[in-house]
Design brief:
By secondary structure, this protein is of the alpha+beta class. The chain contains 2 helices and 5 strands; from the N terminus they run ββαβαββ. The chain has a 5-stranded mixed beta sheet with strand order 2-1-5-3-4, with helices on one face. About 35% of the residues are buried.
């Protein structure tokens, strides 16, 4: 089962089941993650910056393509409520703009 490591959440590791979105896997593990629209792909607050393993993600969804075309989702970012991890591990981090105030974030070693 592929694993996501969230670097600036103290190297949090989350196993992602086949077909499961990153957001669903994070929530199943009891991890809070910003998602203002309720995980419906209508905003970009759940985005994750992918540091390693971008090739292991499933194809971009319609919502992600829409935000990319508008310049609101960079090439190394995915929406946690939309994307899946298929075939390998990945490392990412929470963007500064979407950090939750009640969580303690650690220093990232990559940008």
């Amino acid at each position: 089962m592929p694993k996501l490591t969230v670097q600036n959440l103290a190297q949090l590791q989350v196993k992602i089941a086949p077909g499961q979105t990153l957001l669903a896997a994070l929530q199943a593990q009891g991890q809070d993650w910003m998602h203002a629209c309720g995980g419906k792909g209508r905003c970009t607050t759940c985005r994750i910056i992918v540091l390693q393993g971008l090739a292991h993600f499933g194809p971009l969804t319609e919502a992600e393509l829409r935000y990319r075309s508008r310049g609101r989702l960079k090439d190394n970012e995915r929406l946690a409520c939309q994307c899946t991890l298929e075939g390998g591990d990945a490392t990412g981090k929470v963007p500064e703009q979407t950090k939750l105030p009640h969580l303690r974030y650690t220093q990232s070693t990559e940008s």
